[in-house]
Write a structure and sequence with these properties.
Strand content: 15-25%
Strand order of the largest sheet: 1-2-3-5-4
Shape: globular
Low-confidence stretches: none
CATH superfamily: HIT-like
Number of domains: 1
Largest sheet: 5 strands, antiparallel
Helix content: 25-40%
CATH architecture: 2-Layer Sandwich
Number of strands: 5
Structural class: alpha+beta
Order of helices and strands: HEEEHEEH
CATH class: Alpha Beta
Organism: Saccharopolyspora gregorii
CATH topology: HIT family, subunit A
Number of helices: 3
InterPro entries: HINT (IPR039384), Histidine_triad_HIT (IPR001310), HIT-like (IPR011146), HIT-like_sf (IPR036265)
Protein name: HIT family protein
Pfam families: HIT (PF01230)
């Protein structure tokens, strides 16, 4: 679907476009001004996207997030990426959600299912050590 939007075959409300990225309004917005930024070159997810495309998408997301916060008077912004069906990815073309956040909940329906609670220090330490080794 997102390849069709980038190609102009599927209608969208375009917000920004450059040689590498395309930003457009989300048709199922979590808040006023919710939009998506995608690479023009197809990549399935975070694991597949080339580093240069990821950097370009992130920079475009930052640029449109700043504009959205100014233009809509947002009190904050979430950037969200879901990688894999079990992580809520529903469209398998890499994308970043840019979600303006508002104190005024009439503009903002997003609630997260995760409520942070302190973790087990031993588990955190063990997993961090494993990951540090995997990266070296």
């Amino acid at each position: 679907m997102f390849c069709g939007i980038v190609a102009g075959d599927v209608p969208s409300v375009k917000v920004a476009e450059d040689a590498t990225t395309f930003a457009f309004m989300d048709i199922n917005p979590a808040s006023d001004g919710h939009l998506l930024v995608v690479p023009k070159r197809h990549s399935k997810d975070l694991f597949e996207i080339p580093a240069d495309d990821l950097a370009a998408v992130t920079l475009t997301a930052q640029r449109v997030a700043k504009a959205a916060a100014r233009e809509f008077g947002a009190d904050g912004v979430n950037l969200l990426n879901c990688c894999g069906a079990d992580a809520w990815q529903s469209v398998f073309h890499f994308h970043l959600h840019v979600i303006p956040r508002y104190t005024d909940k009439s503009k903002d329906g997003l609630t997260l299912p995760w409520a942070p609670v302190p973790g087990d220090v031993d588990t955190i330490t063990e997993l961090g050590g494993r990951l540090e080794k995997a990266l070296n």
